Amino acid sequence: MIGNNLGIIEMAMTGVLVLGFCLYQYIAMTRDIARSKRERDASAGGSGHPHGEHRLDDR
Questions:
Q1: In whole angstroms, what is the distance from residue 25 CA to residue 7 CA?
Q2: CB 41 within 8 A of CB 33
Q3: What Cα–Cα distance (Å) separates residue 50 from each residue in 16, 23, 38?
Q4: How far, in Å, CA of 55 to CA of 19, rounded?
Q5: What is the Cα–Cα distance from 41 to 59, expressed in whole angstroms?
């Protein structure tokens, strides 16, 4: 009886691990992008152009 459910249990455990890893990567990349954007905005402050004046500023 339990042998019939082992496949489902294994798939569920693997799915939880995969979803956890995906969530970790999403959070890590979101933080990294935000950090890069803050650094870029801080360093671009001396360019003399107001934010959004040029099309490339919105990246």
A1: 27
A2: no
A3: 46, 36, 16
A4: 37
A5: 11
Specify the amino acid at residue 14: T
Whole-angstrom distance, CA of residue 22 vs CA of residue 41: 28
57 CB neighbour count, 10 Å cutoff: 13
Contact between 30 and 23 (Cβ < 8 Å): no
Calpha distance 57→39 (Å, rounded): 14
pTM attached to this predicted model:
0.60
Supply φ then ψ for residue 51, to 5 degrees.
-65, 130
Render pLDDT for 1-41 as a digit per residue (tens, 0 to 9): 677 889 899 999 999 999 999 999 999 999 999 999 888 87
